[in-house]
Design brief:
The chain has helices spanning 40-52, 73-80, 98-104, 108-117, 141-157, 171-181, 200-208, 229-238, 266-280, 282-297, and strands at residues 3-6, 9-11, 19-23, 57-60, 83-85, 87-89, 129-133, 161-164, 189-192, 212-216, 245-248, 298-299. By secondary structure, the chain is an alpha/beta fold. It is globular and about 50 Å long. The modification N6-carboxylysine is found at residue 131. This is Phosphotriesterase. Zn(2+) 1 binds at residues 22, 24, 131, 250. Zn(2+) 2 binds at residues 131, 164, 193.
Length: 304
């Protein structure tokens, strides 16, 4: 039976509710000095604000070594009434000290599997997805290493693989590697940040594989992609891929949190969803926020 693996246990997909399919409660990277998401009280307030506008679930894509604070997530889920899904996986190498990467050599897939089945560290919190990352229009050796380990962990557990696409690029290379060479089932792959590169041809080619396509995060002004996102979603829906689309907020900096004056998690439901509904209809948006995440992250879990 399919289940979404939340920090409070496995959940039937139909009970997930309105889902922010890609966001961060905790995140700390040397690439973003001074903008770390480390405050438990701020995370609690952000979840409360999200819940107040109708939010029911958040999928945290923060992977290994970037301040996940897995032990704090169950209490936050219970207090807020928002389901939380945690991640294992590994980001691009620029987010890590070389010492950390050396320690993972030869055992990366083993780490992923352990965090999916036994729990993250000593927290007992099991991850519900594997997050990895590509590069800008390419896959370097680090990306191939992490995706190979992710594929091995997927085959052992059934876990979905969520992919950060750098500025929305490289989607087809990722699918060629994960699904072509490494045998990951396409419907177990989520491609993130497609809103950052609104190429309708690539979007359709990726969707044709059977993967999920995530439009996640309000763009920076100079990217000029927010206003094009409804057209991209409409084009995919018109082509028959409306059941493969996801929406997320991807809050990665402290200043972006709503409690600090930024858009934060509530922005997804307060502004993005109504804007999208005006373009493609409320029924489709409702499905993208509720039904699609349950299918994308709901798994018939296997134990190796």
């Amino acid at each position: 039976m399919s289940a979404v693996r939340t920090v409070l246990g496995d959940l039937p997909p139909a009970e997930l509710g309105v889902c922010d399919a890609h966001d961060h409660l905790f995140f700390a990277s040397p690439r973003l000095p001074g903008e770390e998401l480390r405050s438990g009280s701020a995370a609690r307030a952000e979840l409360a604000a999200f819940r107040a506008v109708g939010g029911g679930a958040v999928v945290q894509w923060t992977p290994y070594g970037l301040g996940r604070r897995a032990a704090d997530l169950p209490a936050l889920a219970r207090e807020s009434g928002v389901h939380i899904v945690a991640a294992t996986g590994l980001h691009q190498d620029v987010h890590y000290d070389e010492r950390v990467l050396k320690e993972l050599r030869g055992r990366l897939a083993e780490v992923f599997v352990a965090e999916l089945t036994d729990g993250i560290g000593t927290s007992g919190v099991r991850a519900g997805l594997i997050k990895v990352a590509g590069g800008f229009h390419a896959l370097d050796a680090h990306a191939r290493w992490t995706m190979t380990a992710a594929a091995e962990a997927h085959h052992a557990t059934g876990a979905p693989v969520a992919v950060h696409l750098e500025l929305g690029t490289g989607a087809l290379d990722v699918l060629d590697l994960l699904c072509g060479e490494l045998g990951v089932e396409p419907h177990r792959v989520v491609l993130g940040h497609l809103n950052r590169s609104p190429d309708p041809v690539v979007h359709r080619q990726a969707a044709r594989s059977g993967c999920y396509l995530a439009f996640d995060g309000p763009s920076r002004a100079n990217h000029a992609t927010d206003w094009r996102m409804p057209d991209a979603v409409r084009a995919l829906a018109d082509a028959g891929y409306g059941d493969r689309l996801l929406l997320g907020g991807d809050t990665t900096t402290a200043s972006a949190r709503s409690v600090n004056g930024g858009p934060g998690m509530p922005y997804l439901l307060r502004r993005v969803a109504p804007r999208l509904a005006a373009a493609v209809g409320e029924e489709l948006v409702r499905g993208i926020l509720t039904e699609n995440p349950g299918r994308a992250f709901g798994v018939a879990w296997r134990r190796p």
